[in-house]
Automatic annotation (TrEMBL):
Organism field: Bhargavaea ginsengi
Gene3D superfamilies the UniProt entry points to: 3.40.50.20, ATP-grasp fold, A domain, ATP-grasp fold, B domain
Limits of the ATP-grasp domain: 95-283
Record NCBIfam families: rimK_fam (TIGR00768)
InterPro entries: ATP-grasp (IPR011761), ATP-grasp_RimK-type (IPR013651), ATP_grasp_subdomain_1 (IPR013815), Rp_bS6_RimK/Lys_biosynth_LsyX (IPR004666)
Gene Ontology molecular function: ATP binding; metal ion binding; ribosomal S6-glutamic acid ligase activity
Pfam families membership: RimK
Name by which UniProt lists this protein: Ribosomal protein S6--L-glutamate ligase
Length: 287
């Protein structure tokens, strides 16, 4: 009998992270796999003693890259692969990969590394960015989930205040897609196919995330939207992905790809449990 661990971050107090893990574990049990939900700190990374009794595979719903890497190095199949999780966890790194594959997305400039104790405020760099992008624009920190750490910048004062506050942080400047203000599409893909999709919209925020007050409904994707979602997941190497699409004036654009996308909301909206497709895919792939 196959077994699996479903790992999430135990330091996060919101039940939605444990709920995500339970959804996947229940899907595994339905498929005849013995499943165990574990917090990341419940797996001791003892490099000398090793892991002991190994599961057949791990579904990794966390961003603890070191733990995922250690599990993979211990010979356990990990989904998604640690390199994919790391790429998607840093938006700047992710956008480099998407751009290299020619994926349509908002125009993006990655900010240079600036150490916290120093500043490039007097170099003219930020003035060049302002002149190039104009306002409003989006500033995104490299690490952030559920729409957090994404800022709509509408004044020069706010721009200079924000860039100075982000010294020591990876972040990007990005074109603001006004035609998609407060609305986007979440597409969940598994193993190169689309499993579920929902349209999200907000009347109160420029972001459409449900966490920030957005609401959602099922959507039938166009061929362009389907193709772009699958290509974006492929570009970052994600076997499981939550791809967020924007409504560009000339067609869909990729906002970002999530390697550990939450599936409860899309389950509630569409009635499709993405976890079942995830487990089915893993079992087909394993020897």
């Amino acid at each position: 009998m196959k077994s699996c661990w479903v790992i999430y971050n135990g330091s996060l107090i919101s039940d939605k992270f444990a709920d995500q893990a339970r959804l996947v574990a229940e899907a595994a049990e339905r498929a005849g796999v013995r499943a165990e939900v574990r917090k990341n700190y419940e797996v001791m990374m003892d490099l000398q003693r090793g892991i002991g009794s190994k599961p057949s595979f791990v579904v990794f719903l966390d961003k603890d890259i070191l733990l995922a890497t250690w599990l993979k190095a211990s010979g356990i199949p990990v989904f998604n692969d640690p390199e994919v999780i790391e790429t998607c966890d840093n938006k700047a790194k992710q956008y480099i990969r998407l751009a290299a594959e020619g994926i349509p997305m908002p125009r993006t400039v990655i900010a240079p590394k600036v150490y916290p104790a120093f500043s490039i405020a007097e170099t003219g760099y930020f003035e060049r960015v302002l002149a190039d992008f104009g306002l409003p624009m989006i500033i995104k920190e490299g690490h952030g989930s559920f729409g957090a750490k994404v800022y709509l910048i509408e004044t020069e004062e706010a721009f200079f205040e924000k860039v100075e506050s982000l010294r020591g942080v990876d972040f990007v400047f990005q074109e603001f897609i006004a035609s998609s203000r407060g609305r986007d599409i979440r597409v969940n893909t598994v193993g190169g196919r689309i499993v579920a999709a929902m349209y999200r919209h907000s009347e109160t925020d420029f972001r459409a995330n449900i966490t920030n007050g957005g609401v959602a409904e099922p959507i039938e994707l166009t061929e362009n939207q389907q193709h772009l979602a699958l290509e974006a997941a492929r570009a970052v190497g994600a076997e499981f992905a939550g791809v967020d699409l924007l409504f560009g004036q000339d067609g869909p654009l990729v906002c970002e790809v999530n390697a550990a996308a939450h599936i409860r909301n899309i389950y509630n909206v569409t009635g499709i449990n993405v976890a079942d497709a995830m487990i089915e895919y893993i079992l087909e792939k394993l020897p």
